[in-house]
Amino acid sequence: MNLIKIDKFYPNYKEQIFGGDDIKGYDVYSDREEKIGEVQDALLDETGRFRYLVIDTGFWIFGKKVLLPVGYARMDYDRRRVYVIGMTKAQAESLPEYHDNMTIDYDYEERVRNVYRPMANNRSTASTASTAAPGRTYNRDTYSYDHEPDLYATTDQDHQNLKLYEEKLIANKNRYKSGEVTVGKHVESQTAQVSVPVEKERVVIERSTPSEAREVQPGTADFHDGEVARVEVHEEKADIQKKAFVREEVGIKKEVERDTVDAKETVRREELEVDVDGNPVVKGRR
Question: Has residue 260 been placed in a domain?
Answer without folding.
Answer: no
